[in-house]
Amino acid sequence: MQPGTLSTFLKRGAIWGFIVLELIFFSIAGEFLSVSDKAFINVDNMLLLFKQSAPIGIIAMGMTIIMVNGNIDLSVGATYAISAIVMLDAMTWSMFAGLGDGVIPVAWILALLTGVALGALNGLIVWKTGVDAFIVTLGSMLGYRGLVFMYNGEQPTSHLNWTLVDFAEAQWLGLHTATWFLLVVTAAVWFLMNKTVHGRNAYAIGNNRSAAVNAGIRVGPHMVINFMIIGFLAALSAVVFYSESGSVNPNDGELYELWVITAVVLGGTKLTGGAGSIISTFGGVLAIQLLRKGLSHIGADTETVNLVIGLILIAVLFLDRQLNTKGKEELKV
Amino acid sequence: MSDLTPVLRLEDIVKTFPGVRALDGVSLTLMPGEVHALMGENGAGKSTLMKVLGGILKPNEGRILVAETPVVMSSPLEAKAKGIVFIHQELSLAEELSVAENIYLGELPRKRFGLVDWATLETRTNAILEKLKVGFDARTRVGDLSIANQQMVEIARALTVDAKAVIFDEPTASLTDAEKVVLFDVIAGLQEQGVGIIYISHRMEEIFRITDRISVLRDGSYRGTVNTADTDEEAVTQLMIGRKLDLTRNESHHELGDVALEVRGLCCGDLFRDISFEVRRGEVVGFYGLVGAGRTEIAETLFGLRDPSAGTILLDGQETVIHSPTDAISRGISLVPEDRKGQGLILGMNCRDNMTLPQVDDLKAGPFVAEGAEVSIFDQYRDRLDIRTPGWKQLVGNLSGGNQQKIVIGKWLSMRPSVLIVDEPTRGIDVGSKSEIHNLIRELAAQGYAVIVISSEMPEVLHVSDRIVAMYSGRIMRTFTSEEVTEDNLIQAISGITPDKAA
């Protein structure tokens, strides 16, 4: 075994080990603390867990691409809300009145295009101005949220279409529609990042930008494409979730960016870019959802959940730093 | 060399930076199948010339001809497309990616729909790695490789394209002897295919082993080309250092005091091994060596920035362990770092605040900073070091290099150290201020400080040092007194040539 293999293995597999720990902990603690008499590990409960992971999970896949590329996107929550409004509102537009249920795919496509356009705008600004993605998307987070409020004031935007609800609540091979979307997105993004030139170049750019530039990789277009992908995925996440709920509040999706980034970082993606794995992000998403579910299973309230997740995130990053220092001869800074 | 069209020709290249004429009418001809060494001291302009050639810098005057056709190269990519491949000294690799992906960075073979053709990529890479006889394969993550192997990955990039000219910039800096042999085989292979090779190195034995011709640069100007077979180390050294530099040795000696700092058998991983020396009060010890010889790392270890893996440090005869810069400062060790702007100063702060930075904790009037005390410290050292600034409110970023360096030195003097380490004290400082800094260093020693000067400039080391420690790849080769040192024996010592037993 080469030196470093063990720590690499620990790092790669850590998130799954953590999930197993969570399962064991909540099963045992649930026996004593839970108010319900159902076991924590129960098929329905786990299926629900997957379904509930979908909104954050779908966006997290896009965030992994963005962060591997060396950027960050804080505007996903606002993009999510705008896309949801576009989808629900479009179904009531008079020009589509004659379509019947045919309005559903039209509304979906409009919502997804909205997401792509907002993402492209982010990407173009980052590319053409050279301003850090953190600042650009901090601005667009506020700006896009402003658009949400301009659209309908403080009022929720609602439209319930039962065909849509039926589709969203359907189960196929036991899994919910939302779960299928999450799985398909995960597979597609994994394929993109591991099998295509675009994906590998994204890794190279995040890893050593000047080397990538010197090798003739065009950094800007790659970044714009990645921002379009995350915009698309934020919209897709909204499409999946609001097809079922049918009503969007102007505050929906707030703090999503932070949950998404937490999941991605738990999955081991570096904040500085260049390293990260789609599968581990999937693990990170499940781990967070398990924690939320598990804590409520044993009767903890929401505030506790946030506290615990915050502590775990810091602990994980500390561990990562410990595993990554190369030895005591290293320059201390 | 039957084919007489040069693969590459440089004509009267001039490159100026603000205030410096980095290249002054340099011409160079590279024939096919030739290994052409480019030599010169640090700062002679080799790197600038290669950056011009590699498309990273644009020359102000002169022409570049590839196969006798004038070309303009505006990016490294264009240079590569014209068959000029540049193997960098500093690694430019993406550590998280595989070896194959790094070698073909930016030119991954594709299948339909933008998919990476992994099979082709792997076959091609493994074929190249086979030639290089390395112990890793295409799928290894670059970050898991040793520095030497990473260098081999960098070298492998030269073999991916149909190169006309390959530039190697200090390729052996981190290679072991076995790997060097492989590298030389690779170079010989390229030579047979008619590729012209420019080989930059400081190591005489390599130059004489593999090159056909040697061109020498000094202070940005071309000093001539010689056939390797017709020359020897002496002659090349003469060409490199020339005569016009002020190589006067330090003549004055001060009364030496007790040993202030002694180092015994200090090691730090691969960075340096078995370093022993001592510095007395009133003495200036110069550390001379090539970039990467481990000099700065020794300074960093003494200043508590690195933990040594073995060895002891004695201060005033007492064994000491230095854990951190705070430790070092409290024990009277000060470091004037190599990178003045990045590590030595806070450019956006004014002169006074920079100077009192390490002791501002002690300068308090109640809960507030005692401004008056700060100003008086600043005034004292401004006068003592002759720092020319309109006033203490001036931002340090607006001062000249020489005055900036004096602020850093003043900062440490005000901490009353016993050992002062100065790393590259005159880098990027104009000639006039250089001699001022040199005089200052001599004066400080006269006042009883023990001073260590690390420098890559030979005139500087000769000028200020009472004794000179010559280092070569992490080891002390020899220690000279200022009486016995000559340019020749010094340059030989830092090139790894062991002195004759008779001498």
Write the topology of this structure.
The complex is a heterodimer of chains A (333) and B (503).
Chain A: H1 5-33, H2 43-68, H3 76-90, H4 103-129, H5 133-152, E1 157-158, H6 162-169, E2 171-172, E3 175-176, H7 177-195, H8 197-207, H9 209-214, H10 219-245, E4 247-248, H11 256-266, H12 278-297, H13 302-324
Antiparallel strand pairs in A: 1-4, 2-3
Helix pairs in contact in A: 1-12, 2-7, 2-8, 2-10, 2-11, 2-12, 3-4, 3-5, 3-10, 4-5, 4-10, 6-10, 7-8, 8-10, 11-12, 12-13
Chain B: E1 8-17, E2 20-30, E3 35-39, H1 46-53, E4 61-66, E5 69-71, H2 76-81, E6 84-87, H3 99-103, H4 118-132, H5 147-156, E7 165-169, H6 177-192, E8 196-200, H7 204-210, E9 213-218, E10 221-227, H8 233-241, E11 259-268, E12 272-280, E13 284-289, H9 295-302, E14 310-315, E15 318-320, H10 325-330, E16 333-336, H11 340-344, H12 351-355, E17 364-365, E18 368-369, H13 371-385, H14 401-413, E19 419-423, H15 431-446, E20 450-455, H16 458-464, E21 467-472, E22 475-481, H17 487-494
Parallel strand pairs in B: 3-8, 3-9, 6-7, 7-8, 13-20, 13-21, 16-19, 19-20
Antiparallel strand pairs in B: 1-2, 1-4, 4-5, 9-10, 11-12, 11-14, 14-15, 17-18, 21-22
Helix pairs in contact in B: 13-14, 14-15
Structure overview:
The complex is a heterodimer of chains A (333) and B (503). With 333 residues, chain A is mainly α. Chain A has 13 helices and 4 strands. Chain A has helices at residues 5-33, 43-68, 76-90, 103-129, 133-152, 162-169, 177-195, 197-207, 209-214, 219-245, 256-266, 278-297, 302-324; strands spanning 157-158, 171-172, 175-176, 247-248. In chain A, β2 and β3 (175-176) form a beta hairpin. The model of chain B has no long low-confidence stretch (mean pLDDT 83). Chain B is 32% helix and 25% strand. Chain B has 3 domains: 8-241, Rossmann fold (3-Layer(aba) Sandwich); 245-332 and 417-497, P-loop containing nucleotide triphosphate hydrolases (Rossmann fold, 3-Layer(aba) Sandwich), CATH 3.40.50.300; 340-416, no CATH class. Chain B is α/β, with parallel strands linked by helices. In chain B, a hairpin with a 2-residue loop joins β9 (213-218) and β10 (221-227). The interface between A and B is medium-sized, with 29 and 33 residues. Chain A: The complex is composed of two ATP-binding proteins (LsrA), two transmembrane proteins (LsrC and LsrD) and a solute-binding protein (LsrB).
